[in-house]
Amino acid sequence: MARDPHSETTLTSRGIGMAAVGVVVGGLGVGLATPPLVYVGVAMCAAVAVAALWMLLSVNSFLSSYPFAHREITPRPLTVGVVGRVTVTMSAAQRGRAGAVLRRAIAQSLDIREQAAAELTGGGATKATVARTSDSLSLSYALHPTRRGRWPLGPALVHSSDPLGMIWADTAVGGTEEVAVWPHVIDLSGTAGALMGHADRIVLGARTPSADDAALRDYREGDDLRRVHWPSSARTGTMLVRSDERAGKRPATVIIDPPLDAEALEWAVSSAASIAISVLDSGHPVRLFGGTISVETATRMRSENADMARVALLNSTVDIASAASRDAAEHELSRASRHATDDLTQGEVIIAVLEPHEGRSLAELVPLGEAGHAWAVVRDSDEVPAAQTALALRRAGWRVAVASMGDDLAAVWMRLVASGDAP
Length: 423
Hints:
This protein has 423 residues and is α/β, with parallel strands linked by helices. It is built from 13 helices and 17 strands. It has three domains: 63-182, Sandwich (Immunoglobulin-like); 189-209 and 247-417, 3-Layer(aba) Sandwich (Rossmann fold), CATH 3.40.50.10160; 216-246, no CATH class.
């Protein structure tokens, strides 16, 4: 941790009173030509000056004795609703017996705490445990993240005061860093697997594809040329490549439509992340995009390296933000829908977490439902009912469940799976 010491020194009420009385007494002594009063006034003001010098020396002694600081956060990144822990360790410049008594005296005389955003602490004060030795000073406390995003943590603050309590100082030690917080994720692996299996039955029940047709897709820039299927490319006049997706491991795309309301946004992000992670855990490649997640950078995460895929998916949700206006939100959803339509692979499943919409953005979703393997969770609210949007999507071939923020997401999934073959 980079050390950037900055000290804020303040006179306490005792120090202010001592300095003020000293000035008054000294002034009276001069005015009355009474040397004892002058001496007393000067002595009182000198006491404040000595306290300031003491503070300067003690802070500098601490910084010179403990120049190395390290912050460890576990787990990292943090997750909403999951308790984390921070340990800040300040190590002595020189270890050993020489100077150990002085370092221990300094460590015992100082209080240490750390600043943290309210989103990381649950809005309350941190309760830290401080351990002191002659060679190190460590601070350990729990984090209770309550909101997804990136939030500042640090710097550590060393609180010190002179023996008479006339001056105190908070010295910032170490730097500030942003800590990423993932959204709350609900385990939907059971219902996600059932939904993906239902999608297989729909697609494979419609027709039995040949081995070539089921595993081919249009060539995209960056594809390995060794995967080009030349006979099919020559027959169709379009370059086709062998896809890694097979029946039973059907790919999925999760589209998020970020609400404008802050609380609803967190619900939507948590729902979309839970869906994407659960589809991945069920063994299917998945990608997540929409809102501020660029469709150009969204890639299909594969279950072969589940840990890295989970991290990549959850990292992509940290910075999702609401659109600036309803028109901008409509534009983002239309763009995501068009990209999903143009980039659709054979038998790909589409799952969307949507706000109620009408007009152009809703029309852009229609082609995704024509293949019969598109599902949607539409958020209902008192301000904007979802019934009209749900009806339009069902007519376009989507399977739809209307959900409120207070609904159990697993139950919503079960309704989607139980919807059967009829849209």
